[in-house]
Write a structure and sequence with these properties.
Main location (chains A, B): membrane
Pfam families (chains A, B): AA_permease_2
Membrane topology (chains A, B): Multi-pass membrane protein
Biased composition (Basic and acidic residues) (chains A, B): 674-686
Mean pLDDT of chain A: 84
Largest interface: A-B, 89 and 89 residues
Structural class of chain A: alpha/beta
Oligomer: homodimer
Number of domains of chain A: 2
Region (Disordered) (chains A, B): 653-686
Helix content of chain A: 55-70%
Number of helices of chain A: 26
Distance between the termini of chain A: 46 Å
Low-confidence stretches of chain A: 1-24, 671-686
Radius of gyration of chain A: 32 Å
Largest sheet of chain A: 5 strands, parallel
CATH architecture of the largest domain in chain A: Up-down Bundle
Shape of chain A: elongated
Chain lengths: 686, 686
Amino acid sequence: MSKLTDLPKRILIGRALHSNKLGETLLPKRIALPVFASDPLSSVAYAPGEVLLVLSVAGVSAYHFSPWIALAVVVLMFTVVASYRQNVHAYPSGGGDYEVANVNLGPKAGLTVASALLVDYVLTVAVSIASGIENLGSAIPFVVEHKTACAIGVIVLLTLMNLRGVRESGKLFAIPTYVFVGGVFIMIAWGAWRGLVAGDTMKAPTADYTISAEHQGLAGFALVFLLLRAFSSGCAALTGVEAISNGVPAFRKPKSKNAASTLALMGGLAVTMFCGIIALAMATKVRMAEHPATELLNNGKPVGSGYTQNPVISQVAEAVFGNGSFLFIVLAAATALVLFLAANTAYNGFPLLGSILAQDRYLPRQLHTRGDRLAFSNGIVLLAGAAAVLTYIYGADSTKLIQLYIVGVFVSFTLSQTGMVRHWNRHLRTETDPAKRRHMMRSRAINAFGAFLTGLVLVVVLLTKFTHGAWVALLGMVIFYATMTAIRKHYDRVAEEIAIDEEPGDEAVRPSRVHSIVLVSKVHKPTLRALAYAKLMRSDTLEALSISVDPAETKALRDEWHRRSIDVPLKVLDSPYREITRPIIDYVKSLRKESPRDAVSVYIPEYVVGHWYEHLLHNQSALRLKGRLLFTPGVMVTSVPWQLDSSEAAKKRARKHAEWNAPGSVRRGPVAAPKKDKKEKAATKK
Amino acid sequence: MSKLTDLPKRILIGRALHSNKLGETLLPKRIALPVFASDPLSSVAYAPGEVLLVLSVAGVSAYHFSPWIALAVVVLMFTVVASYRQNVHAYPSGGGDYEVANVNLGPKAGLTVASALLVDYVLTVAVSIASGIENLGSAIPFVVEHKTACAIGVIVLLTLMNLRGVRESGKLFAIPTYVFVGGVFIMIAWGAWRGLVAGDTMKAPTADYTISAEHQGLAGFALVFLLLRAFSSGCAALTGVEAISNGVPAFRKPKSKNAASTLALMGGLAVTMFCGIIALAMATKVRMAEHPATELLNNGKPVGSGYTQNPVISQVAEAVFGNGSFLFIVLAAATALVLFLAANTAYNGFPLLGSILAQDRYLPRQLHTRGDRLAFSNGIVLLAGAAAVLTYIYGADSTKLIQLYIVGVFVSFTLSQTGMVRHWNRHLRTETDPAKRRHMMRSRAINAFGAFLTGLVLVVVLLTKFTHGAWVALLGMVIFYATMTAIRKHYDRVAEEIAIDEEPGDEAVRPSRVHSIVLVSKVHKPTLRALAYAKLMRSDTLEALSISVDPAETKALRDEWHRRSIDVPLKVLDSPYREITRPIIDYVKSLRKESPRDAVSVYIPEYVVGHWYEHLLHNQSALRLKGRLLFTPGVMVTSVPWQLDSSEAAKKRARKHAEWNAPGSVRRGPVAAPKKDKKEKAATKK
C-alpha cells in the first residue's frame, strides 16, 4: 500500500539526484555562517518595518521612539547570543532547546519547548516566504499582485526541492546570504555617506505621505502598551538565533569554540543591519501604516486598497540607490532569496526535531531514523501543508503572520535558558576547581539574565499579541502537546503490557512442537521454493494446504502433485463460498484446539513486484490472510518471496533513493554522536 | 494500511447488521418474481414516455405511430423472453450472458459482453434513480426542484445500505414491486372502465398543450429514422430481462422450469403494462416534448424553463385517479421505490460479475471470492461513484441518460443469443435421440431469431443514438475492455514467468542449510516469544540481531540478555545514522555472500493492534524492513505476532463483518456450484 501513496509523490518529484554525501563534510565557519544565519539575518528584512508599523498607530510622531525600541532589541539580541554561547559550550553534542529543557527541567518542559518549536517552524516558513514575496514584489509588481498564489508556489517549490534532494547545499546558502549581507552593508554605508558627508536629501517613496493615527496623542499606560507591542514585533529579529545550538556537530574542530564565534558574528551582523535599516528609515522618512489603505494619506486623501506598502528595506534601498537601479534590484532579489532560504531551514529543522521526539516516543517510532528519506518526507509534507494553509488563510500577509510568530521562539528561549541555569546549578554542586567554578558561575549569571529577559519578553509578547493572533500559535502548541502526550502514553501502556513479569512461571506455556503448513494454489516455482524452504526448517510436521474454489483446478493440482511426486502431504479444504481466508483460519484454529501446546507455522509464497499497480494484482489475498492469521494466538506467518522480473525496477529505485540528500542537510553534522549527556540524564533522574 | 483506508468507510457505515443468512434460503416464485423483475418492470415507468418524446419531434400528429412502436417493442420482448428461456434451460447453473458468450464464442466475445454489462450496471443505477426522482417529484415538487442533489442522495443511501448490509432483503423487494404492479393494473383497468364503459373524458394535465414540432411533416427516410429512434428508446423496457438467467440457482426446484415460468410471467406483465400505459397516454392525450421549455406550447406560448415535464405514468395516473388522490400518491411512491430497487439490482450484479471476471483473471484475483465483503465493497463504491458522476454530468435527467443506456444491453443480448446458437449446434453434432434433436433445433431456431432481432436492434440503436450519447457508453466499454485485457496479460505473463520448466536441472540450486536471525530491540515478551518460536524451528544456526542506535539502550539490552542467560547468541550492529533497515539488509547480504547455498530466515516480532491509528505507531519499521528484505534472494521473513490487548477490538469487528449480508443477495442463490459446464469448456478448447 505504501507504494500506492508513493505514486503521486514520485510523479511530482522524479528521481532523487545523485549527490556526493555532503553530510560527511564538516563546515568551515565561512560556510557555517550563511548556513545557520540565513534565518536570523533575513528577519531584518521585516522586523524594522513591523516596529514602524505598530508605532504608526499613535501617529508619525511616535516614530521617534523607534531608536529606543531598536536599542531594546539590540540588548535582547546580545543577551540571547551570549546565553546561547553558553549552551554551545555546555552541549557540544548539539543539544537543542528541546533537549536542554527536557534534561534539566523534565519532560513536560521539554515537550512544551518541542510543541513551541514545531509551531515555530511552520511559521518560519509562512512568514519568511510571505516576506520574501513582498520584497520580490517591490521589484516585480506582478508577484505582489498575486501574493498568495506566488507564496504557495514557493512553498511547493521548496517542498519539491527537499523531497527530491539537491546536489550541493552549502554554496546554495552561502552566495545569497553573503550578497544580502554585503548589499545591506553597502546600502548603510552609502546612505550614511550621502546623508552625512555629501549632504544629499534621500527621500523614501512614502516620505511625503502622512498617517492618520488610530489613536492620536496616546499617553500613559496606552503608550507604554503600544511601545511594548512595537518591541514585540521587533523581536522577530531574534528568530532563528537558537539554530546554531542544534548544529554544533556540523562545525570543524574546535566545534564549540567555532560555533560560539559564529554565533557572536551572526549577532553582530544582525544588530548592525537592524539598527542601520531603522536609522536609514528615519533619515529617509519611511512611512508605514498598519492599515495602509485607510490610514496612509497622500495629500490628505487615503491611498486606497490598490496601494502596496513595500517593506522598509526596499523603501530604504529605493531612497539610497534610486528606484529601479541595479543595486536596488540585486538587493531585492537577494533579500527574497535569503528569506526563502530561511524558510528552507525549517524544512531541515522540523523533521530533525521530529526524529528526536520519535526517539523519545512522542511521535511514531519509525520517524526516529535520522536522515531517513521517508520519515523526512512525511515531516516536510506536514510542515509545508500547515504553512500553506496559514499562508492561504492570512493571504500571505507577513504583518498578520508575524502576530502568530515569536510566541514559540520565546517559549523555547525562556525554558532553554532556565534549563541552563539548572544545568550550572547541578554542575556547581559537584565542581570543586575554583577557576572552573568561577567560569560556571559567570555562565549561570548570563543564562539567568537570559532567562529573565526572554521570560519578560514572552509575557510582553503574550499580553500585546494574544488577541492579534498569538492565540492561534498557542492553540497549535496545545494540539501538538496533546497529540504527543497521547502517543507517549500509548507507547508507555504498550511497554508495560509487554514487559516481562519478574516472578518466574508467569509466562505462557512455551510451545513444544511446531506444525508447519505451506499454502499452495498451483504447482509453480514460488510454491516449490516455499516447500523447499519449509522443509529446511525441520518442523515436527509439515503439510501443504490448498483451498478448493474450483473442482477442476483442485484436480489439476492433485494430479500435478502426484506426477511430480512431491514428498509433502497435500491437504485440500473445500470452500463452497469460494472464500480463502475463513477456511484457513478455521483449520489453523482446529489444529490449535487439538494440541494447544503446539505452535503453527504458516508459509505463504509472496510475489515481489516492482510497480505500484502490481500490488493491486498480487498478494492481496495473502496480505489479508496474514492480517487475520496474526490475530490467532500461537501462529507465526512466514513470507517466502518470489522476485518477479519486474522487481528489478523497484530495486533500482530503492538504490537511487538511498543516495538522496536534503538541501541544507549539512546543518545536521556528520555523525549522530550519542546525543545526550548520559551523566546529566542520570543526575536528573535522582 | 488497509485499516487506514477503511476508517472513513467505517465512520460512515457503522457496524454491519446481524442477519439471518438469507443467502441460504431458496426463492419461491412469488418472491423470485419481484426480486428479479424490479428492474425490467420498473422500466415501463420511463420507456413509454421516451417513445412519445421522440415522436414529438415530428409533431403531435406522429403520436399515432406509437401503437406500432409499442407492437414492435412487444414482439422484441417476446423474442427476448423466449430466447432467454432457452438459456435458462441450457445453463441451469446460472450462466449469465458473459459465460454464455465466453464459452461459446471465445474470450473476446465474453470480454465484450462483460464490458457492456459493467457499463450497463452503472447506467441502470443512473437511469433508474433519475427516473425514480422524477416520479417522486410528480407528487413532491421539492424533489424535482433539487433533482441532482436528491438523485445523488439516493445513490449514497443505496450505497450505504449495501455496504452495511440489511436484515431482510426478500420482502424488501416483494412489497413495493407488487404494489407497483397492482397499482398500474388498477390504473389500466379503471382507466379502461372510465373511458370505454362509463364514457368519462379523462384529460392528462398536458392534454391542452400543443407541440411546436422541430421538423413538421417529416416523411420518407427522415420519418423512418425518427420511428426507429422512438423504437430504440422504447427498447429501454427490455433492460434487466437477462437478469434471471444469472439467478437460476436461487430458485426452488425444478430450478430451470421455475426460472423459465418466472421469466414468462415477467414478460407478460411488462408487455401488458407497457401497452396499457401507452394506450392510456393516447386516450388522455398526454403531450411530451424533447425540449419542453421551448417546444411545449400552452395557448400558443412556450411553457418556459420553469416547467417540469412529469413522466407519462404520472400524467396518466393523474388523469385516471385525479391529481393528489390517494391512489395517485401511492402509485408515484411505489414507482419511485421500484425504480430505486431496480438500481439496487445493479449493486448486486456489478460485484458479482466482478467476481466472475476475477476468476478468469480479468480483474484483480482477490475479488474472486464471492460474497466477500471487501471485494463487494470496492465494487459498489466504484459503481456508485461512476453512477454519481454520470448523474451529476447529466443533471439527473433520465431522458439524457437513456441515450447512453440500451447499447450495452443489446450488445450482450446479441452476443449471448449468438452464443446459444453455437451451443445448440455443438450439441446437435453429438445428439442422436430424435426427440431431443427436435427440441434442440426448436431452441436453436428461437435463439437464432433472437440473435437476429436483437442484433438488428443493436444496429438501430447505434445508428439512431450514437451522437445522442451512445458514444459515451461505447467509450466506457472500450475502457473496461482495455483495462481487463491488460490485467489478463499481466497475469498471463507472470504465470509464464513462474511456470516450472520441464527439463530437469533448470531450477536454481536448492538451499542446503538455513541461518535464522531473530530481530531484537529490547527484552520483552514479544522478543521472548519470537526467540522461543525460532528455536522450535531447529534451523542450522540461530542468532539474535540488534541494531545499536543508542549506546545506552544497547548496553541495557546486553546486560538484560546476560542476566536472563538467554541461550541464543546476541549480535549487535552499529548504525551511526540510526538507520535500521540498511544495516540489516547489508548483514543478510553478507551472510548470503559467505555461503550462497544457504537460506536466511529472519524473524520479526510484530504487534497485532486493534485500532487503525495504532498501525501508525507500531510495526512501520518492521513492515518497511520486510518490504526490503523480500527483494533479497534466498531470504524468508517470519512474523511472530504479539497480540496487544487492544487487538480484541479488531477481532470483534472482524466477527461482525463476517455476518454481513447485502441487500438483494438472495439473487445469488445458496451455493456456488461449479459454475461452468466443464465438458463444454473442453469442447470449445478443441
